[in-house]
Design a protein that fits this description.
The protein is mainly alpha-helical and 253 residues long. The chain has eleven helices and three strands, in the order H-H-H-H-H-H-H-H-H-H-E-E-E-H. It is flat and about 60 Å long.
């Protein structure tokens, strides 16, 4: 449905503003417009425009290649495991959503009314997916070299944060590594409650480690709730947990 994504009038002016803000230029603004189209918008506007999911799929692969190539070249002394861990941080949903906010992506997303009312513009998953779709669109529009330069402009600072230990921690990974090393087992995540309508659910997850239960952690999706539960557990059982890593508030249910 790319061919129906042409922007006109005020929307065309909005896309020009995004290009000016980010310093990139599209030859085909229909691709850029499509990159901003969340599926909730396309469902409410059938026949007008497709959604950005195919571009997101492509952009995810382009992003992964650019980051992998950069890490391989820039960090010749690091092991494959180290490179994989660094990559997992910088291409995480948290990291990409933060980058998207910095680029003001939330101002330009085409989103359905229901998703809009539930705060969809600020949802990390929607922001991260949209950024990947923009990457996919820019790759198709301008080629690998320009797309690579665009990606590295915002991803290199994220890599530097990881190398300097200033990044947001992946508590699930930290907890699993610690539990495997100390207890020779794995954390088990259990959904204990969910509430709200389908478009705006809240989840509560506990993490079970041997005979101990930690949490619950709360989130707008299961991944976020698991991360918050893992943070609670890690800060309780890891030797460097207290003070070194911020622990989200325990949520009573």
């Amino acid at each position: 449905m790319i061919w129906k994504a042409k922007a006109e009038g005020s929307r065309a002016r909005e896309l020009k503003l995004f290009e000016k803000t980010t310093g990139i230029r599209f030859r085909r603004e229909d691709l850029l417009n499509l990159a901003f189209a969340h599926r909730s918008f396309s469902h409410e506007n059938p026949g007008n425009i497709g959604n950005n999911e195919r571009l997101e799929f492509l952009g995810d692969s382009v992003l992964g290649l650019v980051v992998s190539e950069y890490l391989f070249t820039a960090l010749p002394g690091r092991s494959e495991g180290d490179l994989a861990k660094i990559k997992s941080f910088v291409v995480s949903e948290d990291s990409l959503a933060g980058i998207a906010r910095g680029l003001k992506v939330d101002n330009f997303i085409l989103i359905g009314k229901g998703e809009e009312f539930s705060g969809g513009r600020s949802k990390k998953a929607i922001l991260a997916d949209c950024l990947e779709a923009i990457i996919g669109a820019y790759f198709l529009d301008s080629g690998f070299r320009k797309c690579r330069a665009f990606i590295l402009r915002f991803i290199v600072p994220e890599i530097t944060k990881v190398l300097e230990n200033r990044h947001r921690k992946d508590f699930k990974t930290l907890l699993q590594e610690h539990v495997q090393k100390i207890f020779k087992t794995y954390p088990k995540y259990v959904l204990v409650q969910k509430s709200g309508p389908d478009h705006d659910k809240t989840f509560w997850m506990e993490v079970h480690i041997r005979d101990k239960v930690y949490g619950p952690g709360q989130g707008k999706n299961k991944k976020e709730a698991e991360q918050n539960a893992a943070a609670i557990a890690y800060n309780k059982i890891a030797p460097d947990g207290d003070g070194d890593l911020p622990c989200p508030a325990h949520t009573e249910i």
